[in-house]
Design goal:
single chain, alpha+beta, Leucine-rich Repeat Variant, 10% strand, disordered N terminus, nucleus, Integrator complex subunit 4, INTS4_8HBD, INTS4_C
Length: 955
């Protein structure tokens, strides 16, 4: 009976296939017809324009075109024709404006005839009277002209037409015409520059401010495109600085800066004077005068532009910091100058002579030089401005000029230090960073250092850490200044214990830069007495660690420091060298101290040993058991090597992980039970599933936890992961009741991505990948069962690829949680049901993608919370550019708070906090087949003792 039913089922199945076969070509033809008609809805909407009863309906129809704006090449000509016909019969100007706008959008379509659309637009504008429509038509011509970059004949034709429309009375038409002239004028050797400049400059005195502004902007555009502007227009441009409108003054300042940079050595005659100055110097003075403008936007722009004018003479540059106060045309003298004059004159005004106390330096209004009065005290005005934007731009420009001029850097030092007391934190941070950037040109005096150290009392941690970075970069002049700096940093550390790491890093750089100043301070800092033995300090005291870091880093560059150290200080050095190797340098101490540090193996020696291990494994052809023992031994050697030599730790860990994945793969294939896991016992099946999951996790670690991998190494990892995905798919199909559709899609997506990458990099696939590519290409319907049956013989026959050749540029991502630390035994208490904020500070190294970073909070009841840290809480770990390598990933510092909440516990328990990367499982070809993600931990979890208290009820 069962056989009869089986025959009947097979007969019905085969009969259904025969019936559906004739209809397949019709379905394909239907789809093709539908695809060809994809651009017709837009054309149909345009055809509806002739049925509109009024202009409002026509405008609504045109607005609907934006949602379905799609054309096939044959439809473009017809669409332009219908829009043009409706334009001629449309009485409403708003509808005609929209039609011209649509013509510009149609020109951006592929295979659109730009010449035909431009000619049609010019034909429509020929009899137009509305200024709005003409302006939009010229704008359409401008957009279409930009698309035809190489058509110089067309551009010349458009320029002649646009010059005709310049006579229009509307400001919008004139502005668009000037914009076309600036954008489409061909910059060639035979271009008549004087004629173009003369035409544009004739609109400098137009009655409309918008036209004047556009005329100046047109010259700026032509200058940026490579046209050389005639410096003769400079005086006319400078007159526009007195314009009543802000938009004009903004553009004029930009043009003056451009003229100054284009012709810096041209000499110009000052008005009412026989003196000649360089054009760049006079332009600098004119831009400086913008810092006294009434408009905040003009002052901000002027302050920004000053930083880019680096060819100015030192005399004019120094004037920007010399603020001469002038009141009622008389120079105001300082109190010191007045007192000195009284002492040296030997007489006082008696009142008997007429006007014997008149001011001796009367200033004539006509004799005031615009250049000198503009540059005089310009940066002082900018730094004292009431608006944040102006002060910020002034600080940035001051820093840019100081970086190029050491003398100016020393003059600007006092002004930057004064900005440390600004009321806005952003300005203080910028001033601190500016001082750090110019630190190579300056030496801090004691009075300046006192003002700087006063800013350490700032409540903002960003400001304090910025000061630490700045002090680490600057040089100090005296021992007293260095002592004052050390004392202030130690006092500040008591007030803000969270600044411990930043203070350590600061004193490390200070000690390395000032060994000659640290030497006389060693006895008072370490309490060394010539006759009495002092008590041994506590090595866990942060203040004492700061002093040791300072002295030990100075001892690296001063051999006379080491003999002054006490025996217990040398023991503390050995302790800090083991616990804090990043802050304490390696010192060559005498043999009598017993603290000689053994120099680790050099990079070539370690790297050669690593290459020897990999080459021996790739060349060996032995039995399975011997091969497993070799891999296991090599893995142990590599783990030990990564601990010994940090310079090749990344590639050693990568190779160890790759060998571990090979061991897992060999363990799965040992007895061949993976081919039919449904026959295994429950425990064996669970072991097999665990091994496959571990293999997938190792592949993800190799793919996402390492930076600096070459293309062949990345492809080798992904090909190995293809094997793991194939094993996972076979296990789900053969020994699981769950759906295998998503894993199958995931595997096929990985195959497609792998094939594209191999072609892109010109690499050959391994035996497994090449077989999969070949078999899947002939598979008619890639269902999970068919794919799994296809993969079993391929996996059985293909051999493992060789271990990738070591690459010394590989680095492994890692994280170190500094706070909270495991050393604290105190229990954190909070009210149950509410939240408690735990400060978290961590250092992250070699991250390839910081957006994948996650915080993992695991409670004692096994509940886990995954938190995405805010991007603002991630800051660069190193500020020096020479320590940042784009190939080695991002080094960041995470400073945030972790929110913890739970119900009442019977006793205090530990909550685990760790840092991890979130890696989407379906991160293949930028297409997600499922929403699952894997968590790759970057460090061991930090445990904190937490005890939620019950809510107190009653009064």
């Amino acid at each position: 009976m069962a056989a009869v039913l089986k025959k009947r089922a097979l007969a019905e199945y085969s009969q259904s296939i025969v019936q559906e076969a004739p209809f397949e070509p019709q379905l394909k033809r239907f789809r093709l017809v539908k695809k060809q008609a994809s651009g017709r809805p837009t054309l149909a909407l345009i055809s509806c324009l002739q049925n509109c009863k009024n202009s409002n309906e026509a405008l609504q129809t045109l607005l609907r075109l934006i949602d379905t704006f799609e054309f096939e090449p044959p439809d473009i000509i017809e669409a332009v024709k219908k829009l043009s016909e409706h334009f001629k019969s449309e009485p409403e100007s708003a509808v005609r404006v929209k039609i011209l706008s649509l013509l510009a959008d149609i020109g951006h379509e592929q295979k659109a005839d730009l010449q035909a659309i431009i000619d049609e637009t010019l034909l429509l504008l020929k009899n137009e009277r509305s200024h709005k429509v003409i302006a939009q038509g010229i704008n359409t011509i401008l957009k279409l002209g930009k698309l035809s970059v190489d058509n110089g004949v067309l551009h010349l034709k458009l320029l002649e037409i646009v010059k005709h429309y310049l006579k229009d009375v509307s400001h919008s038409v004139k502005c668009k015409c000037l914009e076309v002239i600036g954008t489409l004028t061909p910059i060639t050797a035979d271009l008549n520059t004087n004629e173009i400049v003369h035409l544009i400059s004739s609109y400098f005195n137009n009655e409309d401010a918008r036209v004047r502004s556009q005329a100046f902007s047109t010259l700026i555009v032509l200058h940026e495109r490579g046209m050389t502007l005639n410096p003769d227009i400079y005086m006319n441009v400078c007159q526009a600085l007195k314009d009543d409108y802000e938009i004009v003054r903004l553009v004029v300042i930009k043009l003056i800066r451009s003229l100054g940079e284009a012709h810096p050595e041209n000499l110009i005659m000052l008005p009412d004077s026989e003196q000649e100055v360089r054009l760049i110097d006079d332009a600098f003075g004119k831009v400086c005068s913008g810092l006294t403008d009434l408009s905040m936007r003009v002052r901000t722009l002027a302050a920004k532009l000053l930083g880019s004018m680096t060819q100015v003479s030192n005399h004019f540059l120094n004037q920007t910091l010399d603020k001469k106060l002038i009141s009622n045309m008389r120079r105001k003298r300082t109190a010191h100058e007045l007192a000195w004059e009284n002492v040296t004159s030997g007489e006082w005004a008696s009142g008997k002579k007429w006007a014997d106390d008149q001011p001796k330096e009367m200033v004539d209004a006509d004799s005031i030089n615009l250049m000198s009065s503009g540059a005089c005290g310009a940066f002082v005005h900018g730094l004292e401005d009431e608006y944040l934007e102006v002060r910020t731009a002034a600080v940035e420009s001051l820093c840019q000029l100081a970086m190029k001029n050491p003398d100016f850097a020393n003059l600007s030092l006092d002004f930057l230090v004064d900005m440390f007391n600004d009321e806005i934190e952003e300005v203080r941070l910028m001033a601190i960073d500016s001082l750090r950037r110019i630190s190579e040109h300056i030496i801090l005096r004691d009075d300046q250092l006192e003002t700087i150290l006063g800013a350490l009392e700032d409540f903002s941690q960003d400001v304090r850490e910025g000061l630490h970075q700045m002090l680490a970069s600057c040089r100090m002049s005296t021992t007293g200044g260095l002592k004052m700096c050390i004392e202030k940093l130690l006092d500040n550390l008591k007030k803000y214990p969270q600044d411990k790491r930043s203070t350590y890093r600061c004193l490390q750089k200070v000690g390395a830069q000032h060994p000659e100043l640290v030497l006389p301070l060693i006895p008072p800092l370490l309490c060394i007495h010539p006759f009495f033995d002092t008590s041994e300090p506590d090595v866990d005291n942060p203040q004492y660690i700061c002093i040791l870091i300072l002295i030990l880093n100075a001892a690296k560059y001063s051999p006379t420091i080491s003999p002054l150290l006490e025996p217990h200080t040398l023991r503390h050095y050995a302790y800090l060298r083991d616990t804090m190797p990043n802050f304490v340098p390696e010192l060559r101490l005498s043999e009598g101290t017993g603290n000689t540090i053994i120099k680790p193996a050099s990079v070539p020696e370690s790297f050669d040993f690593l290459k020897t291990i990999v080459n021996s494994l790739n060349a060996s052809e032995v039995s399975y058991r011997v091969q497993t023992n070799l891999l296991q031994m090599a893995k142990e050697h590599l783990n030990r090597l990564s601990e010994m030599d940090s310079s090749i730790a990344g590639i050693a860990q990568f190779t160890s992980l790759y060998i571990g994945a090979q061991l897992l793969y060999a363990q799965i294939f040992e007895k061949g039970l993976w081919k039919n896991p449904s026959t295994l016992a429950t425990q064996q099946a669970n072991i097999l599933k665990t091994n496959i999951d571990q293999l997938l996790e190792n592949c993800l670690k190799m793919q996402y936890l390492f930076v600096g991998l070459a293309a062949n190494e990345q492809c080798s990892i992904k090909q190995f992961r293809l094997r793991a995905l194939a094993l996972n798919l076979i296990f789900i199909v053969k020994a699981s009741n769950s759906s295998a559709l998503a894993p199958c899609h995931h595997f096929l997506g990985a195959v497609e991505e792998m094939q594209r990458e191999l072609v892109m990099h010109g690499l050959e696939p391994d035996s497994f990948a090449s077989s999969v590519f070949k078999e899947l290409s002939v598979l008619e319907e890639p269902k999970p069962g068919a794919v799994a049956r296809l993969l079993i013989p391929i996996l059985s026959e293909s051999k493992l690829a060789k271990i990738p050749v070591p690459n010394s540029q590989v680095r492994m991502s890692s994280a170190v949680i500094i706070e909270p630390s495991n050393q604290t035994d105190s229990t954190l208490k909070f009210t149950a049901g509410l939240t408690m904020a735990v400060p978290l500070e961590a250092e992250l190294f070699n991250l390839s993608d910081p957006s994948r970073l996650r915080l993992i909070i695991k409670y004692p009841d096994q509940r886990t919370h995954v938190v995405l840290p805010r991007p603002a809480h991630l800051k660069p770990l190193f500020f020096d550019n020479d320590k940042q390598d784009s190939h080695s990933g991002h080094n960041l510092r995470l400073l945030t708070t972790v929110l913890i909440s739970h119900q009442v516990w019977s006793e205090a328990c530990n909550v685990d906090i760790s840092i991890a990367l979130s890696v989407p499982e379906a991160d293949i070809a930028k297409k997600k087949f499922n929403d699952s993600s894997s968590i790759l931990h970057l460090c061991k979890p930090q445990k904190i003792s937490v005890a939620p208290k019950p809510i107190k009820r009653g009064i």
